[in-house]
Every structure is written in C-alpha cells, then in structure tokens.
Specification:
Blueprint (H helix, E strand, L loop, with lengths): L1 H21 L6 E7 L13 H9 L1 E7 L6 H8 L5 H4 L5 E4 L4 E4 L17 H7 L4 E4 L15 E2 L8 H12 L7 E6 L3 H7 L6 H21 L6 E6 L5 E2 L5 E3 L9 E5 L3 E6 L4 H9 L5 E5 L18 E5 L4 E3 L9 E2 L13 E4 L7 E7 L3 H9 L40 H38 L3 H14 L1
The structure holds 2-acetamido-2-deoxy-beta-D-glucopyranose (7 copies) and zinc ion.
Cofactor: Zn(2+)
Protein name: Ectonucleotide pyrophosphatase/phosphodiesterase family member 5
InterPro entries: Alkaline_phosphatase_core_sf (IPR017850), Phosphodiest/P_Trfase (IPR002591)
C-alpha cells in the first residue's frame, strides 16, 4: 500500500514540474498587425492611449524607412520577405511583366496570378516548411497560392469583413488545439480615409481615434484569451500619406501623345512603357516637362531605391515631388491624400511598435529599415531566414536582454483576473512561474529521497517476486 502511495505522489510531483516546464514555448508566438497607411506621426495627432500603452510596455521605433515605391503591395511584401521591391517582384500595385506578358492590378483586384509572387518566399511558407502553422486575416497576398501553398488558415480578401471578425479568427487560430505560432492581421484604414480626406484634414482626428479603439479591442481580446503576455505583438504599417492638391497636378497629356506609350502605373511614380520605336520621343518630351517631376531611364534610377533590376520596372519612370500628382488627363481620378513618393521622405514613413515577452519595455529607438523586420520575425519564430536585404543586428536591441526563449509562460488564470495595471500582472506571472518551478522541484526531490530510502529498506526483498511476476506470462505463452 505505502509503495503505491509513494508512486502516485512521485508521479504527481513530476507532473507538476513537467507541466510548469512544458508551458514554456520552444519558440515565440508572433502576431503581426498592419494598419494600412498609418503615418508615423499620427500617434501624436490626437490622444492614442492604446498605442501609447503598447509603447510604454514595449518598444517603439520613431522612423521606419520603408521601401520605394512607398505603395501598399510592395511594402507589405517587404515586411514578410525582407526584400527590396526589385528582389521580391511586387514592384507596384499595378504592374506589367514584359517577359510573362501579363498584368497585375490592385485597382481591379487582378492580383491572384501566382507567378507575380514567386520571386520571393513569404514568411508564412517558410514557417510552415519548418513544421509550424500560420494564420492570416487578409494580409495582402495571403489568399494567393504561392509556391503551391496558402497559409495554414486564411481568409479570402473581402474588405467588408469587420475588424472584430478578423480578430476573432486570429484568436481562434492562436487558441486552437494546434495553435498557430504566426498570425498576420490587416486593416484598410487609416489609408482609405487618408486618401479621401487628405492627411491634413481635421477629420483625420476621429479616423485615428477609431484605429486606436480598434487596437484597444485587439488588446482586450488578447487579454481575454490569455495571450497578451505570451505572444509578441508587432504593430506596423506599409507607408504614410501626404497632402495633395488640385493645384499640384502634372498632366501627361500636355506633354505626350497618348498613342506613343502605355501608362502602367499612375501617381506619384508614373511607370511608362513607350510603344515600339517611341522611346526617345517619349523620353525627350517628358525629361524637362515639369520642375516637380523627375524622369529616369530605367538604368538611371538611383541605386538607393533598389528599384531597377526587374523586368516589371518599366523603361521610363517619372517621379513626382512630394504632394504633386501625376495624371494622364486632368479628368482622371484625383485623391486628396497619396503615397508612393521617395522613401526618404518622413511623411512616407509608417509606425512600428512591439510588445511581448521577447521585447524590451518602455524602449524607444530612433530608426530602422523595414527590411529588418523579416530577420527579426524569423528569429522570434526560430525558423531559418531566406536570403533577404535586412539585418537582425540592426534591430537586436529591441529584444529584451533576458534570453528571449526562456521567458515566463504560465496558464495561470486566477492571477490575471481583474488586473488593470499592466506592469503588475506581468510580475505576478513571473512569480507564479518561479513558485511553480521551485515548488515542483522541492516536491520531486523530497519524494525522490523518500522513494529511494523506501526502496532500499523495504522493496529490495520484494524484487525477486516482481521479476517472477514479469516472467510468468512469458512462461504461460
Ligand atoms: C500578350 O498577350 C496579349 C493578350 O493578353 C496578346 O494579344 C499578345 O499577342 C501577347 N504578346 C505576345 C508577345 O505574346
Ligand atoms: C464579404 O463580407 C460581407 C460581410 O461579412 C458579406 O456580407 C459578403 O457576402 C462577403 N462577400 C463575399 C464575396 O464573400
Ligand atoms: C517644385 O518645384 C519648384 C521649382 O523647382 C521647387 O521650388 C519646389 O520646391 C518643388 N516642390 C517640391 C514639393 O519639391
Ligand atoms: C481629357 O479627358 C476629357 C474627358 O474624357 C477629354 O474630353 C479630353 O479630350 C481629354 N484630353 C486630352 C488631352 O486627351
Ligand atoms: C519610460 O522611459 C522614459 C524615458 O526613457 C521615462 O521618463 C519614463 O519614466 C519611463 N516610464 C516608465 C513607466 O517606466
Ligand atoms: C538601413 O540600411 C542602410 C543600408 O543598408 C544602412 O546604411 C542604415 O544604417 C540602415 N539604417 C538603420 C537605422 O539601421
Ligand atoms: C537583396 O537581397 C537579395 C537576396 O539575397 C540579393 O540578391 C540582392 O543583391 C540584395 N540587394 C542588395 C542591394 O544588397
Ligand atoms: Zn497602403
């Protein structure tokens, strides 16, 4: 009887210890969120308490240099590949590939041709190849078949699906029986309203407040699902926005014969494909057409843009000065806000904030390159990075100095109840973990000593009997 009791006690104690240890993740969970067109300084336009809550308890980078052209699809693909546009192949929202003889257009949602995406391998595929699972709520490209795969879980793009429904999916995937380790969440604003109103409009205040409330909702849901302290939340964007005006329009029709070229992409980087034999005519007519538009032959595009070596970059590009608008015909669509300009311009820069066990707290960094996010993500997920143009070393100081893979992780529910002060319950979690490990260890050691003593004293003579019992069935067979 006593020996059975000791066995049970020993197993229980071992379980306590192993559960405490097994709750530590082998790799970190990451949720990457993009609020499209969230310019870096929107954080200071109106009160944004939820963004500031993340900053105070996490990290914040003030100036993120994104990639040229500062458009949605090129930059979202950079965030998940670490490559410049010329290397990942999504060089614009509207493209023509002269080798494939195919077009790509965000305007008409003609974006599902795999070939456009396959010059790179996005992180969700690498994550899955490493044996993990990923989930994507409408991140650009995540409902496209790339290298024969989709994310493990994904939603078909539908801009009418609410933020709340997207968050619900993300939470469901992170808490399922086979939880994802990588989640990607995308929201269309403040880009949409920024284009319509122009970023200088006072009406942008409520738009930014609304995004802050959405972040608050996400944080609330993550806390409710007991994910807030265990996953690494990264909040960023693809680009900023600048104010345009109908006073600053450059009309191509004034300088060029429409029959001499095809306009592949519009403003502020006009991608121009001259018709057969018309290259010189088009270039000459455009080169000095307007003081606020710089015209480049493809081979003259500045190196710093890393925007040259790809067949989807057209023979001539015309780049507008900040706030200037290129239209073929003045009657074409015009928007009060736009982006796509030189990536050196501060107004083109997005936000970057992060919170979680891997990140430092209340830490601000002046600058980073958006290409550096990819190696950071690979590091957090503990997966091999594909060749890329970023550097983990550039952003390593965002990570907490305490070894990121051995941070507190418990499923304790009671301690989390009703906690409001963030710093407080993070500490409570550490204590719970510490107490769990210590208690478990003490119990195991005590019972091990008792067990060994017991074994030596009383079990030894019984050993021959036990052996006999084991041998018996064999003899009977
Ligand atoms: C390119 O595709 C178009 C149809 O989309 C076709 O009319 C044209 O002949 C093709 N050009 C070449 C060179 O194959
Ligand atoms: C898009 O989502 C909305 C809202 O959930 C839904 O009513 C609509 O049917 C969806 N559209 C498509 C094409 O699935
Ligand atoms: C537009 O061009 C004029 C003349 O060169 C220049 O003074 C002005 O700074 C330019 N505007 C911008 C936004 O660069
Ligand atoms: C611009 O568009 C208007 C309306 O479609 C048209 O009447 C006009 O001729 C166009 N201008 C040029 C220069 O093609
Ligand atoms: C955060 O850091 C700033 C400056 O480094 C400091 O003034 C502030 O007190 C810190 N806040 C907290 C909550 O630690
Ligand atoms: C961004 O990348 C450039 C070119 O590789 C590098 O010179 C610069 O230091 C990087 N910026 C930061 C903030 O790491
Ligand atoms: C960017 O990375 C790709 C892939 O490693 C490489 O081929 C390319 O040369 C890099 N670009 C620059 C400017 O270093
Ligand atoms: Zn965008």
């Amino acid at each position: 009887m006593t020996s059975k009791f000791i066995w049970v006690a020993f197993i229980l104690a071992t379980l306590t210890l192993s559960i405490t240890f097994s709750l530590q993740p082998d790799e970190q969970k990451v949720l990457l969120v993009s609020f499209d067109g969230f310019r870096w300084d929107y954080l200071y336009r109106v009160p944004t308490p939820h963004f500031h809550y993340v900053m105070k308890n996490g990290v914040h980078v003030k100036q993120v240099t994104n990639i040229f052209i500062t458009k949605t699809y090129p930059n979202h693909y950079t965030l998940v590949t670490g490559l410049f546009a010329e290397n990942h192949g999504i060089v614009a929202n509207d493209m023509f590939d002269s080798i494939l003889n195919k077009s790509f257009s965000l305007d008409t949602m003609n974006i599902y041709d795999s070939e456009f995406w396959e010059e790179a391998t996005p992180i969700w595929i690498t994550n899955q190849r490493a044996g993990h699972t990923s989930g994507a709520a409408m991140w650009p490209g995540t409902d496209v078949k790339i290298h024969q795969s989709f994310p493990t879980h994904y939603m078909l793009y539908n801009e009418s699906v609410s933020f709340e429904d997207r968050v619900a999916k993300i939470i469901e995937w992170f808490t399922s029986k086979e939880p994802i380790n990588l989640g990607l969440l995308y929201w269309e604003d403040p880009d949409d309203m920024g284009h319509t109103l122009g970023p200088d409009s006072p009406l942008m205040g409520p738009v930014i407040s609304d995004i802050d409330n959405k972040l608050g909702y996400l944080i609330q849901m993550l806390k409710k699902a007991k994910l807030w302290n265990t996953l690494n939340l990264i909040i960023t964007s693809d680009h900023g926005m600048t104010q345009c005006s109908e006073e600053r329009v450059i009309e191509l029709d004034q300088y060029l014969d429409k029959d001499h070229y095809v306009l592949i992409d519009q403003s502020p980087v006009a991608a121009i494909l001259p018709k057969e034999g018309k290259f010189d005519d088009v270039y000459e007519a455009l080169a000095h057409a307007h003081p606020n538009m710089t015209v480049y032959k493809k081979e003259e595009i500045p190196e710093r843009w890393h925007y040259k070596y790809n067949s989807r970059i057209q023979p001539i590009i015309a780049v507008a000065d900040e706030g200037w608008y290129i239209l073929q015909n003045k009657s074409d669509d015009f928007m009060l806000g736009n982006h796509g300009y030189d990536n050196m311009l501060a107004e083109m820069h997005p936000i970057f904030l992060a919170h979680g066990p891997a990140f430092r707290k209340n830490f601000t960094r002046e600058a980073m390159n958006s290409t550096d996010l990819y190696p950071l993500l690979c590091h957090l997920l503990n997966i091999p990075a594909m060749p890329h143009n970023g550097s983990l070393g550039n952003v390593q100081d965002l990570l907490s100095s305490a070894a990121p893979r051995a941070l507190p992780y418990t499923q304790s529910t009671t301690l989390l109840h009703g906690s409001v002060k963030p710093g407080e319950y993070e500490q409570e979690e550490s204590y719970a973990y510490f107490i769990g490990v210590s208690l478990g260890s003490v119990i195991v050691i005590v019972f091990f000593i008792i067990f060994v003593k017991h074994l030596i004293r009383s079990q030894m003579p019984a050993l021959p009997d036990m052996q006999a019992e084991i041998v018996q069935p064999l003899l009977q067979a």
